[in-house]
Amino acid sequence: MYNPVLFAAVLSIAVAQIGKVLFLRFKRSKWDISLLWSASGMPSSHAAAVSSATMMTGLTEGFSSPLFALASIFSLLVIYDAMGVRRAVGDQAELLNYLMELREHTGKHSLVERVGHTPLQVIAGIVLGCLIALALFYV
């Protein structure tokens, strides 16, 4: 059974994650396949997924429907979290890793520093997600 909202969201995640690898290749001329599983980077797959799902919901159910309103609020919360809270967590992890190095901490466990997104990464994800939803709906 085909669900256009789910399909648009999953496709947006896949395209965004592959886009992260290609963006780094273009920007720094190096391949890093581990970005396929990264929680941060350009573009934001979080923003792409929720934007695509919201856009497809609006296209299929109507932009004045309660379902579109719910999807919009959900998207705003996810985007705020990706750009705000998760980015702050990454900044704190960077500081804590530095402090552990000062204490000559040699354990294998360091905190993940790249967990959030910059505003530009989020905007790129939103644009990507909306474009994917529009392309799937109209093509």
Automatic annotation (TrEMBL):
Signal peptide: none annotated. PANTHER family: ACID PHOSPHATASE/VANADIUM-DEPENDENT HALOPEROXIDASE-RELATED PROTEIN, ACID PHOSPHATASE_VANADIUM-DEPENDENT HALOPEROXIDASE-RELATED PROTEIN. This is Acid phosphatase. The chain crosses the membrane at residues 6-23, 62-80, 118-138. Pfam families: DUF212. The keyword Transmembrane applies. InterPro entries: DUF212. The keyword Transmembrane helix applies. Keywords: Membrane, Transmembrane, Transmembrane helix.
